[in-house]
């Protein structure tokens, strides 16, 4: 702890108001202000690094709650260790802070590219904590946390070098600037950096700002605290860091293209970052079927997507189906199946991602696959979150509700597989209406599947679970792996499985119901908004 500065003896002249102690080039008040500005900028950059790791890891590995918990807990732990280690550098605070900021700018600025490279080239396809992306995530969280933790003790020493004050006041000033900087970084990341620059370029730009701010503070304000050799080493280090970050920024598009091809194959045709997700289209050339990927995961394979969408939609169409509600379904493939029935008069599609819907309208291959469903005058699209829309929807309106939403195991989707959500969906069903839900694979994740079934039944609906087999798209040098899709058909009265005549892509649904029944798990608790139950 730094002792408060003793008062001057009686008769002693007051301190000079000119240049600060130890050869500072500015007055003490100005120097102190510049240090606090440096704290503000460095704190903003540090929080951007944290948010970038959480966001990119959630996209690449999945389960945003787990990723946020791992990144933040590892970083906070590492910050404590970094603060302890920085005590050894307090005697050379200026040189130490300059070195820490140069290294932090390099590590933090390159973290997004390193994590994306690990995901693309190690084959870590998400979900399990055993792949390359997970190890890289922990390593960068640890390194960035150590460096951020080393900042405060060194900045405390620097601000006391300018003007001695009680330790409590100095800490209060530093943390005030630090927290305000964190606020600025936290708001800039989602509202400015991410939409304008994307994750990779935004992180490189943040590293550049970090290097310039740290280098300018030390070399401009505390250069007299450095030996001639230390000054030149710090200049060279910062120029090297800026050179690496600048080169990476120039090559970032080529890097992203190469990584994307490693993930999706050589036939990537469309790669679109919407406000909601990343959409990638592959194939439909040289005889390869269309592949639709959302946030890095295969959503629809032109080779067997009809098995999935017909198994999802057609059983629910057994009965009156004048008005149909599709929740999700921005690709138009479920809507295509609904429109096969001539007595359908209106189809309402509630899809949050309007850019995805526009792609499904205009892309020649995807629009051909969905049968140009969005051109049909019976189809009306509403850009809204499905949960919020259902809360305002008219009751007892729809004969069929099709829930074509992302996998229930994804943290961002758990509210769309909750008891509250299904209660809202039940409220919009007309008398005799049916609800059908995509509930994830049965064989590999029976607990998730049967939790969906239990949650739907908790709203008072009666259910018939069933499954349909399919095949994963093969990567180069690998065979296509078999898997299954699970569905839950529900209504107020017990629904009856029905396969429409002339639907060759749908196998016997009764056999699928029997196969699902063999995996049944009983006694599972329902999933709610405040207590999601879909963790494997």
TrEMBL record:
The active site is at 404 (proton acceptor). Keywords: Cell membrane, Membrane, Polyamine biosynthesis, Spermidine biosynthesis, Transferase, Transmembrane, Transmembrane helix. It is an enzyme of class 2 (transferase). It is found in: Cell membrane. GO terms for biological process: spermidine biosynthetic process. S-methyl-5'-thioadenosine binds at residues 277, 351, 385-386. Its EC number is 2.5.1.16. The keyword Aminoacyl-tRNA synthetase does not apply. Residues 1-21 are annotated as: Disordered. Residues 249-492 form the PABS domain. SUPFAM superfamilies: MFS general substrate transporter, S-adenosyl-L-methionine-dependent methyltransferases. Belongs to the spermidine/spermine synthase family. This is Polyamine aminopropyltransferase. It comes from Streptomyces fructofermentans.
């Amino acid at each position: 702890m730094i002792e408060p500065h003793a008062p001057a003896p009686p008769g002693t002249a007051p301190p000079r108001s000119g240049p600060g102690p130890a050869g500072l080039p500015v007055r003490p008040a100005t120097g102190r202000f510049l240090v606090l500005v440096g704290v503000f900028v460095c704190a903003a950059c540090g929080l951007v690094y944290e948010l970038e790791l959480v966001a990119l890891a959630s996209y690449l590995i999945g389960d945003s709650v787990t990723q946020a918990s791992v990144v933040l807990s590892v970083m906070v732990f590492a910050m404590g260790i970094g603060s302890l280690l920085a005590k050894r550098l307090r005697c050379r605070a200026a040189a130490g802070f300059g070195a820490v900021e140069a290294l932090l700018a390099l590590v933090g600025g390159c973290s997004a590219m390193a994590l994306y490279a690990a995901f693309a080239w190690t084959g870590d396809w998400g979900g399990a904590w055993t792949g390359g992306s997970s190890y890289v995530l922990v390593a960068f969280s640890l390194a960035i946390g150590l460096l951020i933790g080393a900042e405060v003790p060194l900045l405390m020493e620097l601000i006391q070098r300018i003007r001695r004050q009680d330790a409590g006041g100095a800490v209060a000033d530093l943390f005030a600037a630090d927290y305000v900087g964190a606020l600025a970084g936290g708001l800039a990341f989602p509202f400015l950096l991410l939409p304008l620059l994307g994750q990779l370029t935004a992180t490189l730009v943040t590293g550049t700002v970090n290097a310039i701010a740290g280098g300018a503070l030390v070399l401009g304000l505390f250069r007299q605290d450095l030996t001639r050799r230390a000054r030149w080493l710090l200049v060279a280090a910062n120029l090297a860091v800026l050179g690496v970050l600048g080169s990476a920024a120039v090559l970032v598009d080529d890097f992203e293209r190469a990584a994307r091809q490693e993930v999706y194959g050589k036939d990537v045709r469309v790669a679109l970052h919407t406000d909601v997700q990343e959409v990638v289209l592959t194939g439909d050339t040289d005889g390869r079927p269309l592949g639709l990927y959302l946030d890095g995961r295969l959503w629809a394979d032109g080779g067997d997507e009809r098995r999935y969408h017909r198994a999802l939609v057609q059983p629910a169409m057994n009965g009156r189906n004048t008005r149909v509600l599709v929740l999700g379904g921005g690709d138009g493939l479920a809507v295509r199946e609904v429109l096969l029935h001539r007595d359908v008069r209106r189809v309402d599609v509630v899809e949050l991602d309007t850019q995805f819907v526009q792609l499904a309208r205009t892309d020649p291959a995807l629009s051909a696959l969905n049968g140009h469903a969005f051109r049909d005058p019976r189809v009306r699209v509403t850009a809204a979150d499905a949960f919020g829309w259902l809360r305002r929807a008219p009751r007892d309106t729809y004969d069929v509700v099709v829930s074509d939403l992302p996998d229930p195991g994804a943290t961002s989707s758990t509210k769309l597989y909750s008891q509250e959500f299904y209660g809202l969906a039940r409220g919009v069903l007309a008398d005799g209406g049916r609800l059908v839900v995509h509930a994830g694979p049965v064989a590999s994740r029976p607990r998730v599947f049967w939790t969906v079934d239990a949650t739907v039944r908790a709203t008072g609906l009666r259910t018939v679970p069933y499954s349909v087999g399919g095949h994963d798209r093969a990567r180069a040098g690998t065979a296509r792996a078999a898997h299954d899709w699970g569905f839950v058909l529900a209504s107020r009265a017990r629904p009856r499985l029905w396969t429409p005549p002339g639907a060759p892509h749908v196998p016997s649904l009764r056999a699928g119901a029997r196969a699902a029944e063999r995996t049944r798990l009983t006694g599972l608790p329902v999933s709610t908004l405040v207590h999601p139950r879909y963790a494997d």
